[in-house]
Specification:
This protein is mostly helical. 63% of the residues lie in helices and 6% in strands. The protein has 3 domains: 2-262, no CATH class; 371-404, no CATH class; 419-508, no CATH class. The chain has a 5-stranded mixed sheet, with helices on one face. The longest helix is centred in the first third of the chain and has 35 residues, at 2-36. The termini are far apart. 42% of the residues are buried.
């Protein structure tokens, strides 16, 4: 008994050390990226505008917007805390509030990710996988931007963790809490509803499968708890929107793409309602290639072979019905299917879409590196005979391979957020210094009005809004603008660091 108590105490102490290291590194990276950010993502400006409108007319705003309201509500909550501190209001309050929400949930997600990994792949591999996830450039940047990805990831992984613990311990009430987590996450991103699917699939197989680890009575209780828990948060919003998945256009036929990268593509690459390809062998083949390239770019290529090696050697057909196998492999399969649906329907797939899949897959990276290191050492026995007997080839090779793999992306990690958009900040600064509180700015990018603190209206270069005092033209070499300059007077030409003009600020001649 005393030995067990000592062992348990050592385990808890090791967990505290692991979590402390992960949070320290994650916080340092996040604060650095927020401090060096050029601007937030264009989707971030959309979320901030949503949050501002929610404060004024919540029901009307939710009915009018395609985005789910969860992340804007979190931004409003943080803004309220900032207001309570008595700090003077400025345009940056809302921006930093949105970034603080993203970073806070990224850190919380890392904790959940670590403990989920302990249950699925063991403590050592879980710690290394979490460390790799923290240092991946693109996921880290999402966690310091004004984006909903990490709040969504928190509720997704929390729900998966609760399902895993509930299945391992036959605790039906944990399925209810998983449902609550799924419903709360649904208010941020509809994909979080997949937790309910995993739970029901597991319970269904427990009811009719040959090997059961939970009684049918508890299966019924867990099913009801899971559904009720999900509906607590999700049902009121579904009722308001009159749809189960209004954003993803599963019920309606209007496509919607929530991603800044899609907006920056040439118009021909973003399909309209008539261009949806559907599921065809060619679209699926292209989708698979795009998915592999997307995952490889996210893990900066070096970890890609390790992930698939670890995945191959971790799958056991005889044990796939066990919770430790089921609740990692089924999410991977379902998310691959979701990515194929997304690409086949919209011909597009971004790194933000594949973030959950990358998080599931990276659990297997450390084991893949370990297997690769063992293979290298076995093939190098002839060269090791000259080394001291105390030399541990596998440990050294594993350490070098892992460090090289995660370090390769650090230069990109240290690059400021959206470095090519500095001209937007410069434009906003000029407007803030030269406009009055009543002046309205018409701009094609809402971040200009966001950072200037001016009231903004959208401008598509076709018709200049009469009420606009200033008009901003963003110069894009891929698309020549057709702005009507007859009634406009050039006030300022904004250049980049190389001296190339990037934007022109006009005043409207009255």
């Amino acid at each position: 008994m005393q030995a067990d108590a000592i062992s348990e105490e050592a385990t808890v102490r090791r967990q505290i050390v692991h979590v402390s290291i992960l949070l320290t590194i994650g916080l340092a990276v996040g604060v650095y990226l927020i401090g060096t950010a050029t601007v937030v993502a264009q989707d971030g400006a959309t979320f901030l505008e949503y949050a501002k409108n929610l404060r004024i007319a919540p029901t009307k705003t939710m009915l009018a917007e395609d985005q789910h309201p969860g992340y804007p509500l979190l931004i409003l909550a943080v803004q309220h805390l900032v207001t309570m501190t008595g700090i003077s209001s400025s345009p940056f309050d809302s921006i930093y509030s949105a970034q603080a929400v993203a970073l806070t949930f990224r850190l919380l997600t890392i904790i959940v990710f670590y403990f989920l990994g302990r249950a699925l792949v063991g403590s050592r591999y879980s710690f290394l996988a979490a460390l790799a996830l923290i240092l991946l450039p693109y996921p880290a940047k999402f966690g310091s931007d004004a984006l909903s990805d990490w709040p969504h990831m928190f509720f997704l992984l929390t729900g998966l963790f609760l399902l895993t613990r509930g299945a391992l311990g036959s605790k039906w009430w944990l399925f209810g809490i998983a449902g609550i987590s799924s419903g709360a996450g649904y208010l941020i991103r509809p994909e979080c509803a997949q937790i309910v699917g995993y739970g029901f699939l597991w319970l269904l197989m427990q009811s009719f499968g040959p090997k059961r680890s939970i009684s049918r009575h508890r299966v019924a209780l867990a099913s009801v708890a899971l559904l009720v828990g999900f509906c607590v948060f999700a049902a009121p919003y579904m009722h308001l929107k009159k749809a189960v998945f209004p954003k993803k256009a599963v019920v309606t036929a209007t496509p919607y793409i929530q991603n800044e990268e899609a907006r920056e593509l040439p118009p021909a690459t973003v399909p309209d309602e008539m261009d949806i390809a559907g599921f065809t062998p060619s679209s699926i083949a292209r989708g698979v290639i795009e998915l592999l390239a997307n995952i490889s770019e996210t893990v900066v290529w070096f970890l890609t072979p390790a992930i698939f090696i670890g995945l191959y050697y971790s799958f056991d057909k005889r044990a796939w019905m066990q919770p430790k196998q089921f609740f990692i492999f089924v999410p991977i399969v379902l998310n691959i299917a979701l990515m194929m649906w997304l690409y086949s329907k919209y011909s597009y797939m971004s790194r933000r879409h594949t973030l959950p899949l990358v998080a599931f897959l990276i659990f297997f990276a450390p084991r893949g590196v370990q297997i690769s290191a063992s293979w290298i050492c076995r093939r190098s026995r002839w060269a090791l005979k000259k080394l001291p007997a105390s030399y541990n080839c596998e440990r050294t090779t594993f350490f070098l391979m892992f460090v090289i793999s995660v370090s390769y992306g650090i230069p990109l990690l240290l690059t400021p957020l959206h470095p090519n958009s500095m001209f937007l900040r410069t434009s906003a600064q000029w407007l803030a210094e030269n406009s009055g509180p009543e002046d309205i700015v018409a701009a094609p990018d809402s971040r200009i009005s966001l950072y200037s603190g001016c009231k903004g209206v959208p401008h598509d270069y076709l018709t200049t809004p009469k009420e606009a005092r200033y008009v901003v033209e963003v110069l894009n070499s891929r698309k020549k603008t057709t702005i009507d300059k007859v009634s406009l007077h050039v006030e300022k030409i904004i250049e980049d660091n190389s001296g190339n003009p990037r934007a022109v600020i006009y005043s409207q001649i009255r």
